[in-house]
Design a protein that fits this description.
This protein is an alpha/beta fold and about 230 residues long. It is about 40% helix and about 20% strand. It starts with 12 loop residues before the first helix and ends in a 6-residue tail after the last strand. The mean pLDDT is about 95. The structure holds S-adenosylmethionine.
Length: about 230
């Protein structure tokens, strides 16, 4: 089954609200476990979440690592509004005011080059019409030795399988969320396609693994020194 792209940004308010209200606890836990297997302590490190959406992963990491410098970026104002509201609602429990959430539509940004110790991204890659936007951002923003943890959906073999996955994991969710999930599955990449993207970016040292019936994980370190 060929990839069918979907709009890059989730900038519709209803869409962002449906996404923020959905239960992503299982994939978010899987993501955080995978990240901590790569880098167990984030305190005193600069951490960048690319395509942070409503900020759930940034906020969970900030609660666990109060001395990490965490920044989430996203191109959707609707998503960033939710992320900032969630942070401000929990502010009393977050050291130093919690994560920063900044608006950038990649590939455009003015973040300092080679400045980040840990780059993470969950469920952004399939939104990008040109996947090198993510990999070039990783190369440009990560310091030598930067830890990289990217998780994304995996494109199923068929439309029937995509429908089955939506029914298996999102049967009770909002119709808007189910529609977006289905389109996201069709827009996602196969592991071999991600491996080709990494090879084209000279990032073949990053490992690609299938980690659930609908997710793949890309993890490893940029070449060079240690963080
Ligand atoms: C499916 S959401 C994932 C949100 C979050 N990472 C999570 O795990 O819940 C994908 C996010 O990527 C953002 N996005 C897509 N293309 C982007 C781009 N070119 N630049 C910045 N953000 C982008 C969307 O606006 C959306 O908030």
């Amino acid at each position: 089954m060929q990839r069918i792209t979907e709009p890059e940004l989730m900038d519709d308010a209803e869409q962002a609200a449906a996404y923020a209200a959905a239960d992503f606890s299982a994939p978010n836990s899987l993501f955080i476990e995978s990240l901590l297997a790569l880098q167990p302590d984030l305190n005193h490190l600069s951490v960048l979440d690319i395509g942070c959406g409503p900020g759930d992963i940034c906020l969970a990491l900030a609660a666990q690592f109060p001395d990490a410098r965490i920044c989430g970026i996203d191109g959707s104002v609707a998503m960033l509004d939710i992320a900032r509201q969630q942070r401000d609602d929990r502010n009393s429990g977050l050291h130093g005011g919690g994560p920063e959430f900044l608006h950038y539509v990649l590939p455009e940004h003015d973040l300092p080059a080679a400045s980040v110790d840990v780059i993470l991204s969950n469920s952004l890659l399939h939104h990008l019409h040109e996947p090198q936007v993510l990999w070039q951002s990783v190369i440009g923003l990560g310091r030598p030795g930067c830890r990289v943890c990217v998780m994304d959906l995996l494109r199923p073999d068929s439309i029937r399988q995509a429908r089955e996955i939506v029914n298996r994991h999102a049967a009770d969710e909002h119709e808007v969320l189910k529609r977006d999930f289905y389109h996201s599955l069709l827009a996602a990449f196969r592991p071999a396609e991600v491996q080709e993207q990494l090879a084209a970016a000279s990032l073949s040292q990053l490992e690609v693994r299938v980690v659930s019936d609908r997710h793949l994980l890309v993890s490893g370190c940029l070449p060079g020194g240690s963080i």
